[in-house]
Amino acid sequence: MSENPFLRILKDELAEREVFFEEDRTYIGLRVPISFPAQKLAIFVDPCAEGCGCPEHYLGMVENDKDEPYDANASQEGSIAFGPGAAGQANVGDVKGAPSPFGPDPTRCSARIEQENHRLADAGWNVMRFWEHDIDRSPDEVARRIYDELDKA
């Protein structure tokens, strides 16, 4: 399996800033692509086009709980911070509707993501998740947000 190119871009951006991290380590049975074990911070890059419910790239007929059309421009965080020190919790499983043209129903992927977040949080880890499009638009901004989170630890 080849590495996600957006993950490689982020790793290169962090290395360029001399932010040292562990690559592809396993903690509590979960593979974490970028980790900072001393600060207990795990970083994930979620795919926009694999049915994970990306708010910008999930093209299915998506509806919210009020049966109104899903608005990709509505206030959405570009990343998800989760865990004991996280500023807020995104509702990872809020995207509902028809099956994705890209693959499985996003609620299945969202459930897996939420389970990973909870397992790591229960073990004392903070989790930051970014969509591929966040890195595509501004890898330096994503790296800065990670650096800022490490600064808090």
Provide the descriptors you would attach to this structure in a database record.
single chain; 5-stranded mixed beta sheet; 7 strands; 32% helix
SSE map:
Blueprint: H1 5-16, E1 22-27, E2 30-36, E3 41-46, E4 62-63, E5 79-82, E6 96-97, H2 106-122, E7 126-131, H3 132-137, H4 139-152
Parallel strand pairs: 3-7
Antiparallel strand pairs: 1-2, 2-3, 4-6, 5-7
Give a brief outline of the structure:
With 153 residues, the protein is of the alpha+beta class. It has helices spanning 5-16, 106-122, 132-137, 139-152, and strands spanning 22-27, 30-36, 41-46, 62-63, 79-82, 96-97, 126-131. Helix 1 packs across helix 4.
Strand order of the largest sheet: 1-2-3-7-5
Biggest beta sheet attributes = 5 strands, mixed
Per DSSP E runs of 2 or more residues, the count of β-strands stands at 7
Low-confidence spans: 60-103
Whole-angstrom Rg:
15 Å
Output the number of helix runs: 4
What order do the SSEs take from the amino end to the carboxyl end, as H and E? HEEEEEEHEHH
Mean pLDDT: 75
Structural class of the helix and strand makeup? Answer: alpha+beta
* Residue fraction in strands: 15-25%
The geometry reads as globular
* Cα distance spanning the termini: 33 Å
Query: Fraction of residues in helices?
Result: 25-40%
